[in-house]
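Usage example:
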Amino acid sequence: MAAAGCAASSIGSDRAEEPWVRPDKPRRPTVADVAQRAGTSTAVVSYVLNDGPRPVSESTRSRVLAAIDELAYRPSRSARTLRSRHSQFIGLVMPGTIDPYYVELSLPIEQAAARRGHLVMIANSDFDPAQEVAITSALIDEGVPGIAIAGLGASPSLARLIEASDVRVVFVHHRPEGYTGPLVAVDDRRWARHAVEHLIGHGHTRIACLGHHDDDGPVGARVSGWRDALSAAGLAHGDELIIRSGVDRLSASAAAEHWLKERADVTAVFAATDELAFGLMHRAGVLGIAIPSELAVFGFDGVSAAATSVPELSTIVEPFADIGERVAALLFEERDDPKDHQLECRPVYRASCGCR
Amino acid sequence: MAAAGCAASSIGSDRAEEPWVRPDKPRRPTVADVAQRAGTSTAVVSYVLNDGPRPVSESTRSRVLAAIDELAYRPSRSARTLRSRHSQFIGLVMPGTIDPYYVELSLPIEQAAARRGHLVMIANSDFDPAQEVAITSALIDEGVPGIAIAGLGASPSLARLIEASDVRVVFVHHRPEGYTGPLVAVDDRRWARHAVEHLIGHGHTRIACLGHHDDDGPVGARVSGWRDALSAAGLAHGDELIIRSGVDRLSASAAAEHWLKERADVTAVFAATDELAFGLMHRAGVLGIAIPSELAVFGFDGVSAAATSVPELSTIVEPFADIGERVAALLFEERDDPKDHQLECRPVYRASCGCR
DNA sequence: CTGTTAGCGCATTCAG
DNA sequence: CTGAATGCGCTAACAG
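Running the assembly step on the lines above writes:
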């Protein structure tokens, strides 16, 4: 960056400014400027700004306020951060935005933070482990007082870094091995079971499971829930009815392609995430397989797009708003921190499972 | 990302307790600690860290490096920002994430910035004008050297604020009235016309247009392109074939509901954004209207979900990667700034228009 | 009630 | 080649 100071050869300026500062732009006003204009000291300005810690007389206060207004003064956040050792920003570490689930998750967290007067800095690792470490440490170095982590691989070095610093960390949706800190999540296993039991209720007996390779995380738990439901109903079959795909709908669609052609006897699929369900429904559409009459589908996540897919997707809706609020509460308020905060989901039955 | 709270706009700040201070944690090491351990001065540590501006002997350098390593020292970003007057972060102002278009747009910008060693702070205004001002000024106060603005209403006060500060600003997709700064966008009008001409090529003569209320921005230009194509083909009809909706697919679906029941003679729709097209296709699905045989649909944006919708959506694909790269180039590099950078789109013909 | 002043951690200039 | 010293803008002791 560094705009060029073209008038570098200063003839004899009374105040030799740094050459990289644009000469036409006036320096931003500081507390000192405000103090001078208000005829007070910088301390008083600070007291007015922060409404404390010492009282200020009404007359002085209004003089300071006037000066602030006239100079269009705005405090420097970085100076404040340096001094107070904590930035006004909260960090939010996300694995990526390919899956709208994470986008959906971020919004209420932002809003809950905003309600408390904090901005959220989203750091997107784009599913890259190296980036995860880089952005998380950047956040810490920036001085954020807290970080919400919505997706991260197990990384001992990162865990150590977090441990060594004094940031508060809250995990959302999943806490990988090796980390400590409260987790805000849902009972993936139980609700997955609920979804599959619903499909069984529709009369299906051969129910496949579409998941990706994340056996330790929420997806793994959802796959377990699928097994639970089948076992309980005496329908247990082997893992040959598990379809493995990548995390995004495109790879789910590709994974479904081979599979849909050979699985004539399967009449329903539980998709471990809505994103995967979308990929499956896409492939079914291309192959001319009718949903739900030829193949029933049930998702998990409850992203808003599930309400407008063709056909509309039945799914387990996560309480995004509650999650955001709880995360913010853990980040900002002094609260007992039981390790796991489990929030309630809500099933929504739409067309894709055969309910409509 | 980042939503600004009301407190972001207020000058003063809440003097909250700081529950996150953990007294048991040792203070983070500073340059002074490193210098002491390496047996040098802080200046030398700085020289090593920044590889200049003065040379350092190989032996001293390695001693410093060793000390940094042993202490697990990491420089404080806020101190650096305060000192250098510029943060390491780039700001990205987004109107919201309801429409995946903006999510799609943000990713390549992030990546292009990351390639240059910068992280991006996403500020999400959530389509709220007050938030726009709040978050943008928060970004400026934070000391970011540049801001990419992907969505913003016309706001004289904000324009003045930007003008008064020395941030570089680049507009993406749209530059509202009253602002100055380079714009990176596409030729909305011409490509919209292309899309409609494609529909005409399929034999359609009554082609509707689905848009939202943004007549000055890109959507307005796309509606104009729709008119252009019809006029040129001698098919001009009045604005009664314009369907007005909100920005998201849910409201597009609602807007389409009334309309689809009466549209008997209309056989094709040009949707000004993919998001609107998704809403339309959803409603068509619910009403049992077959796409494309009963109603052809063409979108605009080229979000990745268009490739997996049911049916797959024909659309004008914006060059997201090029846009991101160009934005970063304008933000970081010294470059001539012609006002408008127009990038090329690419039409993709899928099932929804009748091509497959 | 208000003014003075010492740092926060870092980068950089000026002496050595 | 290196070290001491000076702020960046702000907050909060510590004096009045």
